[in-house]
Hints:
InterPro entries: DUF6638. The chain is built from 20 helices and twelve strands. It is of the alpha+beta class. Strands 3-4-5-6 form a four-stranded antiparallel sheet. It has a four-stranded mixed sheet with strand order 7-8-9-10, with helices on one face.
Amino acid sequence: xxxxxxxxxxxxxxxxxxxxxxxxxxxxxxxxxxxxxxxxxxxxxxxxxxxxxxxxxxxxxxxxxxxxxxxxxxxxxxxxxxxxxxxxxxxxxxxxxxxxxxxxxxxxxxxxxxxxxxxxxxxxxxxxxxxxxxxxxxxxxxxxxxxxxxxxxxxxxxxxxxxxxxxxxxxxxxxxxxxxxxxxxxxxxxxxxxxxxxxxxxxxxxxxxxxxxxxxxxxxxxxxxxxxxxxxxxxxxxxxxxxxxxxxxxxxxxxxxxxxxxxxxxxxxxxxxxxxxxxxxxxxxxxxxxxxxxxxxxxxxxxxxxxxxxxxxxxxxxxxxxxxxxxxxxxxxxxxxxxxxxxxxxxxxxxxxxxxxxxxxxxxxxxxxxxxxxxxxxxxxxxxxxxxxxxxxxxxxxxxxxxxxxxxxxxxxxxxxxxxxxxxxxxxxxxx
Length: 432
């Protein structure tokens, strides 16, 4: 909730780029949607929303962070304006909620533009299951359907008007029905000219592709032509029992198998000079490793004045700790080997350390999801964690000391927020 993260909020590292809702008629429409969901209306005179209509301020007022996400499935949405398409999604149980909302709003842009002039659009992303009790419930979701409503029933009235227009065209004597014509005029006052303004969404069913979900402590689903792969804690209900003939199960704790799966399915970009040397990727990882060691060794140290010279001095003065951890020397050795051979002999690298030197293949559809999974194996790199797994970052942030929180925020503001696109392009090869 906002009050738990004041430093992050003040630094635009949480709930950033949201849309302010402060016009009375929009607040009234939002409250109509809340009431339709069986929720109490907000008394706030201003609040912010994300792409789905989720508001951190309303969540705090209701005391329910999941007020639009009951049971973590069948996600609700509230659309006040077409401008929401450009906003992030800041709270969700499924990593692909943002993409699904984007596709829905893109495919139905004309209807959304027309409807939101007069009404609020709300509804839910129907996942075909009401609760998630085991992995089979998740795997049964192959597609989602947007159940779309509007507070003033403009959608229903537009459909009725369309039916009457068809009747007028097809029945020779329909124009003599005064009651019908009066009803058409009444509906047209509300809906406008439906020949010009499409009010009914064209596409409401979308594929449910690869995703991460917060269920069962965090679970990944990757979909390939011949097999679906689930990666999670093996204690999750249904692990290796749900559809074993068509689903491959990998323990999130088995670094070797996770790595081999990602590599064999073409989701990884292995460490080669062609991208490693220009990106500064290994230098970034090395710096994150050192910062993590400093935190462990001196948790109360004020790091506000830390610079690269200070970091280099600390490395020299703590050589034993650095060597005992092993990651910093490994990254330096990897850099030398790549410079000499053009690549790293990855099979000779211990499984967990392999994740330090790889990234998702940028052109793969699952690049963001793969980078998210990689970040699970590199907890020292809080920058990558923030970029690809904000939920995980926020959970870990709560365990930080005040000094470390301040340091993390400063690094993120300096390294990432200044130019997020350029940072993602340089380190991860991502252009979106």
